[in-house]
Amino acid sequence: MNDLRVRPATETDLATLVRLRDAAARWMLARGVTGQWRPGELDEDHFRQVMERGEVWLAEAGGRVAGAWELWWEDEAAWGPQPPVAGYVHRLMVDRSIAAPGTGRLLLEAAERRVAEAGRTRARLDCLAGNTQLNAYYRDAGYRVVGHKEGKPQPGGAPKSFTLMEKELSGPTAPRTSARSG
Length: 182
What we know:
- The chain has helices spanning 14-30, 44-53, 76-79, 103-117, 132-140; strands at residues 4-8, 55-61, 64-72, 86-94, 122-128, 144-154, 157-168.
- By secondary structure, the chain is α+β, with helices and mostly antiparallel strands.
- A 7-stranded mixed β-sheet has the order 1-2-3-4-5-7-6, with helices on both faces.
- Residues 173-182 have low confidence and may be disordered.
């Protein structure tokens, strides 16, 4: 993939977001990752609500959606009340049928850039505590474990336990990678 572009999602992207999320859930289940995402768990209304209080971003390659993520400006369910110093990355999703290896990391870096551009100094996320592979992925991306949240409510499911992770960002343009990759 030599041309990855990111843009805010719009109302016309809702069905695409649901399909992307369901495909990611099926991919996880096929690899034995259970207890995290289930197909059919989130609908268009979920993404519409996130757009109303946060942001949803799409990444496109060759005119096709390669991935997406949600960016929230607060996450009291996981982190409790916090000063406005962080952006919270949720539902990082990659379409494995078209995305090149490393696309997930590029999306994460794009989310971090957006957080820094908003004047926030930390990117935060939560990761299912029992998903050791995903926890390692985020640690390899520079995130550190800062806590745990037991019984976090889930859309469409029972509460779950999460690892809370954080990455310090150095300024309004950090980290320095372009929205286009080559």
